Amino acid sequence: xxxxxxxxxxxxxxxxxxxxxxxxxxxxxxxxxxxxxxxxxxxxxxxxxxxxxxxxxxxxxxxxxxxxxxxxxxxxxxxxxxxxxxxxxxxxxxxxxxx
Length: 99
Fold this sequence. Notes:
three-stranded antiparallel beta sheet
């Protein structure tokens, strides 16, 4: 068994996941769309919603004019704190907008 097969991503509490998702979806919807567009290289996306995350990455529900689907965007490295979620989301956004 390899290290990757043994790795279990850190599971954040439902309260933390809910609070961060609510913030991103209500206060930063364009950030979600930038991240998803960059991750999928799909300029036809019209919406993206952060559905959840764990210690290895974030799950977005994305939509174009015809379909809705889910994608997973991996973090740079495994994380386990609320502050690291913010850092990783900020990093994804900065890469998406070319900073």
